[in-house]
Automatic annotation (TrEMBL):
Gene3D superfamilies: 1.10.1740.10, Winged helix-like DNA-binding domain superfamily/Winged helix DNA-binding domain (1.10.10.10). PANTHER family: RNA POLYMERASE ECF-TYPE SIGMA FACTO (PTHR43133), RNA POLYMERASE SIGMA FACTOR SIGZ (PTHR43133:SF62). Residues 40-107, 142-190 form the RNA polymerase sigma-70 region domain. The lineage of its organism: Bacteria, Bacillati, Actinomycetota, Actinomycetes, Kitasatosporales. The keyword DNA damage does not apply. It comes from the Bacteria. It comes from Streptomyces rubiginosohelvolus. This is RNA polymerase sigma factor. InterPro entries: RNA_pol_sigma-70-like, RNA_pol_sigma-70_dom, RNA_pol_sigma70_ECF_CS, RNA_pol_sigma70_r2, RNA_pol_sigma70_r4, RNA_pol_sigma_r2, RNA_pol_sigma_r3/r4-like, WH-like_DNA-bd_sf.
Length: 194
C-alpha cells in the first residue's frame, strides 16, 4: 500500500500574501517603481492578453484591452488592497471589466454601423428619399430663421396638424393674428427655399 503524497507548498509561499516576490512587486507597484511594474507586466501580461483574446476573439482588441488593463493598474495602483486578494486576482478583475467595456463598445459600434448601412441602403435604393431628407433640412433651416411667433404658428400647423382656429385657442392669439403669422411665415419660407 502506498502512502498518499501530500502537496506541500514551498516554504516561501504565504497564502495571505503570495510569494516574497509578489510582496516585492506589490510594494514596488504601490511605491510607483517602474521596474517593478515592468516585472508585473512580464509576469501577468500573457494571462491578461489570453483572457482578452478568448473573450473577444480578436488579437487587436485583445492587445488594446491588455494595454488598458495595465494602464488602469498603474493609474489605480493606490486602490490595490493586499487584504482583498492577490495581485494576480486584482489584475484579473481589471481585465474582466475592460473586456466588458470592449464588448459594450463593440455592440455600440455594431448598432451604429448597422443603422448607417440601413440608412445608406435606403438612400441608394430610393433616391426620392434623399430628396425628401434634403427638403426637410432646408425647411427646418428656413423655419429656424423666422420670427418666433411665425415659427410657432407654422410648427403647430405642420408638425401638430392644428387648424388656425385651434392654434388661436391654444396660444390665446386672435385668429386674424394667427392667419397673418401663417401667411407671412409661408411667404418667407418660400423665398428662403427658392
Amino acid at each position: 500500500m502506498s502512502t498518499p503524497v501530500r502537496s506541500v507548498p514551498p516554504p516561501d509561499v504565504s497564502p495571505a500574501h503570495g510569494t516574497p516576490c509578489d510582496d516585492h512587486l506589490v510594494q514596488g507597484l504601490l511605491d510607483g517603481d517602474e521596474a517593478a511594474f515592468a516585472a508585473i507586466y512580464q509576469r501577468w501580461g500573457a494571462l491578461v492578453h489570453t483572457m482578452a483574446w478568448r473573450a473577444l476573439g480578436d488579437a487587436h482588441e485583445a492587445e488594446d484591452v491588455t494595454q488598458l488593463v495595465f494602464v488602469g493598474a498603474w493609474r489605480g495602483r493606490s486602490g490595490y488592497r493586499r487584504d482583498r486578494g492577490s495581485l494576480g486576482a486584482w489584475l484579473v478583475g481589471i481585465t474582466r471589466r475592460k473586456i466588458a467595456d470592449a464588448l459594450t463598445a463593440r455592440t455600440s459600434r455594431t448598432r451604429l454601423t448597422e443603422s448607417a448601412a440601413h440608412y445608406a441602403g435606403r438612400l441608394r435604393h430610393d433616391p426620392a428619399e434623399s430628396d425628401v431628407i434634403v427638403d426637410r433640412v432646408l425647411v427646418l433651416d428656413a423655419l429656424s430663421r423666422l420670427p418666433s411667433d411665425q415659427q410657432r404658428v407654422l410648427s403647430m400647423t405642420f408638425y401638430e396638424g392644428l387648424t388656425q382656429a385651434e392654434i388661436a385657442a391654444r396660444t390665446g392669439m386672435p385668429l386674424g393674428t394667427v392667419k397673418s403669422h401663417c401667411r407671412r411665415g409661408m411667404n418667407r419660407l418660400r423665398r428662403a427655399i427658392e
